[in-house]
Design brief:
Blueprint: H1 20-28, H2 31-41, H3 52-69, H4 75-113
Region (Disordered): 1-24
């Protein structure tokens, strides 16, 4: 049985936008790949001590500045930049809460000793 054709051809998923060369340089030329790899590394190990989180944030900020300067701050890029900021915020919040908890336990220990 033949598929029904409505006179429209299927969209080509291999076609590149006219200005794809600059975007590819921005993404695949270094920073984009480094950011994606770094974001994956953010999930490895202890969140409070993972140094990759801040390195990923620095890469995201650098890529964000480059993209915005070139007028290319698209949603795909910004979603990864948002994730880098989110990971850094989660890490900072975790460290803050751990320090707060340690101070609370110290206060309890002092009060129990008295």
């Amino acid at each position: 049985m033949q598929p029904v054709s409505h006179g429209k051809s299927a969209p080509s998923h291999t076609a590149s936008p006219p200005d794809a060369g600059e975007e590819e340089k921005l993404w695949y030329g270094g920073l984009g790949g480094a950011l994606l790899f770094g974001l994956e590394q953010n999930w490895r190990g202890d969140a409070a001590s993972n140094r990759q989180v801040l390195a990923s944030l620095a890469t995201a900020q650098q890529l964000e500045q480059s993209a915005l300067a070139a007028g290319r701050g698209g949603w795909r890029l910004l979603s990864h930049v948002y994730r880098a900021y989110f990971d850094a915020t989660v890490q900072a919040r975790l460290r803050f809460e751990q320090a707060r908890e340690a101070r609370a336990y110290e206060a309890i220990a002092v009060a129990a000793a008295d």
